[in-house]
Structures are given as structure tokens and as C-alpha cells.
Write the C-alpha cells for this entry.
Amino acid sequence: MKFGSVDYPETIDFTLPKDHPDTARVLKENACDEFNVFVGCAKWNRADLKGFYPRGTKDELEYYSRQFNSIELNATFYRIFSPEQFEKWYEKTPSNFKFFPKLNQEISHWKRLNEDVGPVVENYLYSAVNLKEKLGCVFLQMHNNFAPKDFNRVVDFVESWPKEIPLALEFRHTDWYNDEAVSEDLYQLLEENNISNIIVDSAGRRDIIHMRLTNSRAFVRYVGANHQTDYSRLDDWVDRLKTWKHAGIKDVNFFVHQNIEKESPLLSAYLIKKMNTELGTDLKIPNDDSNGQQTLL
């Protein structure tokens, strides 16, 4: 994931911004005793996660899903898989595992939420629903140049989305957040339709780390810089998530990316260990019990 990469991460101020003032209100209005945490990587293939799989691993997803409780399914951005493929993924994974698939690029980047996008969305969901209860939250990531001038497309898309399927949205054009009138309209739309507002933490794009929740789900896409600062940044995130837990947040979906993805399991394991200590979760630490496999901690 090259988005927001920088050459000298040590020069970046990685301080997490304060919460948007309305985040506390949203959490209070949706306060819940239930607390669910899903942490994972963006991919499970051996080529990207070099060194993660023990020798002799025959099925990468089967092994991955017994180390992590979720996956941010980026593969679905590049192609629409058949219902049968989703069924196979369902069958390979444990009962507590969840998939968080990205909507296909035809929806976000080619048709750009145009009025004729409906059949593509229906075709995508026709396949994805075969994940059944393992379908976590579908997410849409718009192109960098998708600007607020096309806000009406977002409105139409959000209002036509099937309410029974959780959805999260990510915008990368800076005007969605640096124009207060635009951002407030967007937040209101997401709140009214129970859509999660994705938070992206990337070194080179501090302008879009808005810290504005729009429902009881925090969907965080964390992009490490393959640098020592990655760990202190995760420490700060654990502190913020602890605050949100005390405020009654229900779901935390946290996915770790790296420009060199092979380090993603390492960072994820560090994050999970911190969460278990600070948030009281009981998540498995990846590779912690593998026979002969070098631990990631």
C-alpha cells in the first residue's frame, strides 16, 4: 500500500488529532456494553507476508484465520469473485472469523458512484453475502480525485444501500475534510444512515485523519511507514481506543497496512498484545503458539 508513503517518517508529527467534538456525542447516543475488536492485515497471500507462514503450510487462508480474527479483504477491489468462492472462504475459516471486503473498483473508481452503478453493487453483494455471519463490514474507498462536487452521488449511493449490510466509507480528496460545510453534510448523511466513517492514519496524509465517528463502529486503516515510529503510533491508538471503550463504543475494526507488507503481522501482533493489556481484550497473538515458528514479538 503506497498511499501516503514518505521518505523520512521521522520528520512527521504523528500526534493523533483530538476527537472531533461530535464523536463524544455519537458514542454517548450509541453507548453499548458489548465491545467487539477485530484486528487483521490487508492480505493473506504468502508472497506479501513473507516469513509469516511456517514451512509446509498448504492453505494460507486457513492458517491466517487461526492466527487473526479478521482480514481486510482488498482482493475484492480488483475482481468480483463468484458466490462459490465466498462460500469456500467461509468454510475454511473458524466460526469467530470475519471478512471486511472492499467494494470493487468498478463501483468506486470506474463508475464513480454514477446512477448506473446499482447493478454492479447488486452483483457484488449477491456473492459477498455468502460469507453469512462472517461478513463483518463492507467498505468503499473512493479515488483520490473524487471531490465533493459529486456529493449527490454519495447521497444516492448511501440512501440506496441495503440497511442490513454494514457499510463504511473512505474519502481521500482533502476537500471532504478541510471544507467544514462539506464535512458536516457528509457526517450528517453517514450518521442518519448508520454508515461508518473510515479513519485513515497514513504518514503522508495527515489532512484526512479526521477522528470523527458517525456510529458505534471505529473502522481504522492504519498505514505503517516501515519505521520505528510505527510502534509509538500504535501505542497512541491504543490510548484513544481505551477512551472510546469507556465512552461505550461497540465495534473496533483495525487493519494494519505497510508499504512493505511482510511487516504487517509483526505490527499487528504488537497491537494485539497492547490491546489485551490495556483494553482487556483476549485476542490471540499471531504465531504465539506455533511449533518451531519464530514468534513475531
The chain has one domain: 9-278. Residues 290-297 have pLDDT under 50 and may be disordered. Strands lie at 36-41, 70-73, 98-101, 138-141, 167-170, 196-197, 199-202, 217-224, 251-258.
